[in-house]
Amino acid sequence: MGILMLFLGYGALLGRSIAGSNDAKVKKLGSITSGIGLLLMIVAGFGLVAKLYGNSFEPWMIAKVVIWVVLGGLIALINRKPALAVALWWGLIALGAVAAVMVYIRPF
């Protein structure tokens, strides 16, 4: 649910930027949705680590936390640099793909 909320919120914010709109309602809804999504992701992620790995971290988990921090910081770029919206759109997709690879392939 958290991942869906994050990408839905960021999609709304990026769509707003690409369209050149200054709609405050879309900005507020996108920001709230992505923030709640980030919170759900970190709580669920650490809960899963505690349950499955007994609080021991592996390198791929650290990479996932770094990706989470980057995803959290992207909201500032999305809201402050609308000219980067298309690049951020594709960057978000790439970050999502890297995060999925970290879970399923565990390259390190």
Features:
mainly alpha; 0% strand; elongated
Explained architecture:
- With about 110 residues, the chain is mainly alpha-helical.
- The protein has one domain.
- Helix content is about 85%, strand content about 0%.
- It contains 4 helices and no strands.
- Helix 1 (about 1-20) packs antiparallel against helix 2 and helix 2 packs antiparallel against helix 3.
- It starts with a helix and ends with a helix.
Q: How would you summarize what this structure contains?
A:
With 108 residues, the protein is mainly alpha-helical. The protein contains 4 helices and no strands.
Structural class: mainly alpha
Unreliable runs = none
Count up the helices.
4
Instruction: Tell me the count of domains.
Output: 1
| Averaged pLDDT | 94
Distance between the termini: 27 Å
Largest sheet properties: none
Cα-atom radius of gyration:
15 Å
Strand content: under 5%
Shape: elongated
* Share in helix: over 70%
Oligomer: single chain
Order of helices and strands: HHHH
* Beta strands, count: 0
How are the SSEs ordered, and which strands pair?
Layout: H1 2-19, H2 24-53, H3 59-80, H4 85-104
